[in-house]
Write a structure and sequence with these properties.
Blueprint lengths: L3 E6 L11 H4 L4 H14 L3 E6 L3 H11 L5 E5 L8 H10 L3 E5 L21 E4 L4 H11 L1
Parallel strand pairs: 1-2, 1-3, 3-4, 4-5
Helix pairs in contact: 3-4
Length: 142
């Protein structure tokens, strides 16, 4: 029953549309955010989006969400596999959180198979391109 959602885009996602389109798709981050906002508007959800290449800024955004959000959808990018600090921030705010990935991380390099944040999330959606965010948002709201 979440109605106020923070969407977090992690490192290098500002390069979507240009960065490895065969892996990450051709949509820009702005286009993905527009599609998510349109969907949220239809569902009468308040949606805020945030992108940073900085681990600390992502942690700050998670902390701030604790004061206003009902849930988080996060694509932590490479920090998924390395950041205990982001995992701890998710735990600290105790908001329902869904981890998402554009690509199927399990079909890629072995180092991408382990998520440090998945154990503190409700679930993980991966491999559906920009729709991973949409599926994660729907799972969180439902």
């Amino acid at each position: 029953m979440s109605s106020k959602i923070l969407i977090i885009h992690g490192p290098n996602l500002n390069m979507l549309g240009k960065r490895e389109p065969g892996v990450y798709g051709r949509l820009s981050l702005q286009e993905i955010n527009e599609r998510l906002r349109d969907h949220a508007e239809e569902r009468k959800l308040e949606l805020r989006t945030f992108q940073s290449n900085s681990e600390g800024a992502i942690i700050d955004a998670i902390h701030e969400a604790g004061a206003w959000a009902d849930g988080i959808v996060i694509n932590a990018g490479a920090y998924t596999h390395t950041s205990i600090a982001i995992r701890d921030a998710i735990t600290a705010v105790a908001l329902p959180t869904v981890e998402v990935h554009l690509s199927n991380v399990h079909a890629r390099e072995a180092f991408r198979h382990k998520s440090l944040i998945a154990p503190v999330c409700l679930g993980v959606v991966a491999g559906f391109g920009w729709r991973s965010y949409l599926l994660g948002l729907e799972a969180l709201v439902e």
